Amino acid sequence: MTNYSKFPVEFYGDAEQITPVLSKGRCRIFYKYENRNGTYISDEFAEKLIGTLPYTPVKGIYDE
């Protein structure tokens, strides 16, 4: 059984197409403080997340 998660993605600038099925870009993956799904990310925890993220690949299928 495949488990797919759906969540909104906000891109910064344009994605660079590497191949017909692979693109590279920058996106926002979390919001600090209260989120739409009822969770809360504090300043301290956000800094920990940010420290682990640079150049971390995220795989997904983007469908406008």
Describe the structure.
- This protein is 16% helix and 33% strand.
- It is of the alpha+beta class and 64 residues long.
- It has a domain of 31 residues.
- It is globular, with a radius of gyration of 14 Å.
- The mean pLDDT is 79.
Layout: helices, strands, pairs:
Elements: E1 10-19, E2 22-28, E3 33-34, E4 40-41, H1 43-52
Defining traits:
about 60 residues; 1 helix; alpha+beta; two-stranded antiparallel sheet
Q: Low-confidence stretches at least 5 residues in length (pLDDT < 50)?
A: none
What is the 3D form? globular
- Counting DSSP H or I runs of 4 or more residues, the number of helices is 1
Evaluate the radius of gyration: 14 Å
Following the backbone from N to C, one meets helices and strands in this order, namely EEEEH
Our measurement of the CA-to-CA distance between the termini, rounded to an integer number of angstroms, reads 25 Å
Structure classification: alpha+beta
Mean pLDDT: 79
As a percent range, the share of strand residues is 25-35%
Biggest β-sheet strands, sense, barrel: 2 strands, antiparallel
Helix residue percentage: 10-25%
The side-by-side strand order for the widest beta sheet comes to: 1-2
Give the strand tally: 4
Q: Brief overview, please?
A:
The protein has one helix at residues 43-52, and strands at 10-19, 22-28, 33-34, 40-41. The protein contains 1 helix and 4 strands.
